[in-house]
Amino acid sequence: MVEQSRRSLILGGMGVASFAVARAGWSRPADTPAADGADEVLPLWPGTPPGGAGVALTELIQDNPDPKGKRHRRLSRIGNPVLIVKRAAKPNGAAVIAIPGGGFSVLNYDAAGTDHAAWLTAVGITTFILVYRLPGEGWAQRADVPLQDAQRAIRLVRANADRLGIDKNRIGLLGSSAGGHVAGSLATRFDERVYERVDAQDDLSARPDLAALLFPVVTMGNGAHAPSRAALLGAAPSAAVCDAYSLERHVVSGTPPLFLCCAGDDQVVSPANTLALYRATLDAGSKAEMHVFQKGGHGFGVQLSQAVPTAQWPVLFVRFARYNGLLA
Length: 328
Fold this sequence. Notes:
The protein is of the alpha/beta class and about 325 residues long. It has helices at about 5-15, 110-120, 145-160, 160-165, 180-190, 225-235, 240-245, 270-285, 315-325, and strands at about 1-5, 40-45, 60-65, 75, 80-85, 95-100, 105-110, 125-130, 170-175, 210-215, 260-265, 290-295. The protein is globular, with a radius of gyration of 18 Å. The N and C termini lie far apart (about 45 Å).
């Protein structure tokens, strides 16, 4: 595995990228993470992110291409969280924020970011890959850091909806593993103030219109994915803290429609996580659809063989999105 600084990978391995930004007066860092070619990059925060006093990080990208040359980049030490915009050739007005997982220790940028964006843009959905901060890298209020970035991200997308050619009322989420926890937190805690207002964009709603969670980390209590819990909450969180960050404890009637998907043979994040969230959603009177496939393990994306039934999840998601109004 090759580990490089963000600057050496972007400038040396990928060519000098040109970036358009939405906020006048923002000067992009010299080495913005993992943007490919002319992707537009939207910085989340106009200055230091919340809880960032004294935090100085040099982002790292671990690049581990497979024998066929497919990239598998993992990001960490993220000091400047951003949205990377992937535009559809024939946009239909819908948008999805793709939220990679990685146990809150890294972000699996390609497997749960660029791969998903390629599929989503092919069906007309403008996609935003969320490069969010990791909680254990020196930030104050560490457990809320991913949700801070996710709330700010959806507000930023809404603020730029007209310019980007999307409907501000048709913004969905697609979160994988720990990214599923981030997406689920946003879907259940969208009204909770987890950072101080920065500007007028923070007056916009942070409620997504739909959320898809793949093999998600859900609970922080019994049955939790222990590495994700430790990375998010620290080594020995109290029962009260675990409850506060367990998604199944926060589903309300206003939670947007949830598409839940996992494999029964997942040996990393127990399928019981998905089942608990589905039950909580039904109990709250919210809309949900759940698919538990026989085989697929953890971390499946859109690269599965079509011989495996799990490979049909993107088709099921599109149907769910259309049925619930994300797609016209």
